[in-house]
Amino acid sequence: MLEVRDLCVEIRGRKILDQIGFDVSCGQWLMIVGPNGAGKTTLVNALTGGIQSTGSMHLQGEDLRKMSSAARARRIGVLEQQHVQGCAFRVEEVVRMGRYAHRTGFFRPASDEDDAAVEEAIRLCGLEDLRGQELDTLSGGELQRTYLAQAFCQTPDLLILDEPANHLDIKYQKQVFSLIRKWLDSPGRAVISIVHDLSLAKIHATHALLLDGGRQAGYGPADDVLRPELLEKVYGLDVAAWMKELYEVWE
Amino acid sequence: MRRYSEHFDVREYVMFGAVTLAVMALCVCVGSVSIPLKEIGQVLWGTLCGESAPSGAHAAMILSIRIPRVLCVALEGASLSLAGAAMQGLLRNPLADGSTLGVSAGASLGAVLAIAFGISFPHLPFAGTMVMAILFAFLSLLLILALAWRMDSSLSTNTIILIGVIFSMFISSLINVIVTFASDRLHSITFWTMGSLSASTYPKALLLLICLLLAGGVIFAHASELNAFSLGEDTARHIGVNIRRTRLLILIAVSCLIGVCVAIGGMISFVGLVTPHMVRMIVGPNHKRLLPASLFGGAVFLMLADLAARILLDPIELPIGVVTSMVGAVVFIVIFLRTGEGGKHA
Fold first, then answer.
1. Banded pLDDT at B54 (limits 50, 70, 90)
2. Min Cα separation A91/chain B (Å)
3. B161-177, pLDDT tens digit by residue?
4. How many CB atoms lie within 10 A of CB B45?
5. Cβ-proximal residues to B286 (8 Å cutoff; 6+ apart), any chain
6. How far apart are CA A81 and CA B318, in angstroms?
7. A179 phi and psi, to 5 degrees?
8. Is A69 within 8 Å of B243 when comparing Cβ atoms?
9. 3-state secondary structure of A192
């Protein structure tokens, strides 16, 4: 579905990403992992057109950079790490904005298909009771689910998520990852996400891309990349031992 | 399927339209000479149907002074308010309006130059100020965007606001220099900078209407994009908005509205800042509702301000800009204290 080759990002003469390359096929969940400053968010920004980059990016054979904003939004949904605060829009209005790229005409009127997609996204994210609530009255988890519903509402083929578990307590963390898993179960879809929690990456990833200082330290099936020795090299820590130590307190 | 409506419905258009018409009628009736509503109706009916040519002092006052003035004031208020609502949504800044962008300042410089150097066109006595104001509004926009582009090619809103504020301060000092050298025209320039619509005519109202239809149409057509901008530029881009194109179109439309308004009415501040905040409390942040409400709200606000300017110290007429600034500043503080959330703009 997505082919990325030799992707480089340079900001004020400093190379932030260097020669990154990977593929994402239908049904795959690619987790981007790595320590702070590895270039994970920069990679997501490059994929979503937020910053300038070199190299090639093709979505189903089409050059991602040559696609119009609307065409890209119809095929790629994005969930950011941070959301705008102090906004009085209602939950349903925000979810409905996800249909922007599908609506045509001078005043972009909503069709039955748009209404159906909105209802489906609201139902999937469990926002039925919150649909009339203003955004600035929501908790972090509710806000995250609202924006996830907006991305679902775009009916994309590829979902790009920057820290989807951000602001979420463990209950909603589990719920959001289950939602994404459920969404991915439908044919013709794929997910790329950044995660810091390597346990979550190990549970949900089919593939992983390990970044270190802007370079690709590992890429492939999740079990091949998320190996203790490779992670130790990148994080400078015996990750597997630390994880075991954390879980031992529950035993 | 439950159909969700984000737009103003017919009932709301009728309600806001009725209030606007009622205030319009009030402003035509009341003034240094009060005219009964019935008489205004008779004069209008007679003129429109052409049954009998209305005559008398009242008819002349209604047709030549009151109606063109009320039309100009309403259209100017609607234009400034619409421009303010669009700017606040686009820049995600509750303090944004024409002055923030620097376009009002640019238009003022053009108009002050025209007054100071007596620039005029044959057979079109008011055209010199107007052409210069519109020209300088556009030039200011180009300069501001070029500088913003040079500093930050993504044309981020923070850069635009920063350049706009600096530009306004620079223009203000230039105007002071011109005033120093054109002291014989000091009265005209000072009166104009305080804002006045006392010399309104039907051609001026027509010009305001054409500009409002064209530039306002562009802004109305981008209500969805303005909603998306309210959630942040990144979110807007992710849902498919062409950020750069939208920003340019809206900035150009806003410049047209402000350029024409400044040329016709001088510096009338606070309308574009206060009215969108007031109507947002009634209709919410969705631009599909906020823009039409701002249109009506701006017209009503400026008509009432003009009425106050005419009757408060009768027979002396206050400059309308003084009234809008005094009322606007108080209303703005009250809104901020009541909501307790100055940053909540959307």
1. low
2. 12
3. 788 888 988 998 998 88
4. 12
5. A89, A93, B6, B227
6. 53
7. -60, -45
8. yes
9. strand
Which residue in the set B228, B286, B341 is minimally distant from A100, CB to CB?
A: B228
Helices (H), chain B: 10-29, 37-49, 57-60, 67-91, 98-101, 103-116, 127-151, 157-181, 186-193, 202-221, 223-230, 233-238, 243-265, 271-283, 287-311, 320-339
Kindly report the pTM of this predicted structure.
0.85
The domain ranges of chain A are 1-60+157-251, 84-156
Residue B1 in contact with partner chain A when CB distance is under 8 A: yes
Q: Are A239 and A33 in contact (CB under 8 A)?
A: no
Residue from A51, A74, A100 to probe the interface with B (highest B Cβ count within 10 Å): A100
In which band, very low, low, confident or very high, does the pLDDT at B346 lie, cut at 50, 70 and 90? very low
Q: Which residue has the tokens 């807007």?
A: B236
DSSP code at position B32:
S
Residues in CB range of A123: below 8 A, 6 or more apart = none
Name the band, by pLDDT with cuts 50, 70 and 90, for residue B154. low
What would the mean pLDDT of B284-310 be, rounded to a whole number? 93
Chains A, B: CB contacts under 8 A, how many?
Answer: 100
Domain ranges of chain B: 7-63, 71-339
Distance (Å) from the C-alpha of residue A142 to the closest C-alpha of chain B? 16
- Best to test chain B binding among A87, A137, A143, A158 (most B CBs inside 10 Å): A87
Distance of CA B56 to the CA centre of its chain: 34
Enter the CATH code of domain A1-60+157-251. Answer: 3.40.50.300
Backbone angles phi, psi at A29, to 5 degrees: -125, 105
Q: Which residues of A touch B (CB under 8 A)?
A: 48-50, 68-74, 77-78, 80, 83-84, 86-90, 92-94, 96-98, 100-101, 103, 106-108, 110, 112, 115-116, 118-119, 136, 147, 150-151, 154
Following CA atoms A142, A144, A146, A149 in sequence, which dihedral angle do they give, to the nearest 10 degrees? -130
Q: Find tokens 């900035």 and name the residue.
A: B251
CATH of span B71-339: 1.10.3470.10
Q: Do A100 and B231 touch (CB under 8 A)?
A: no
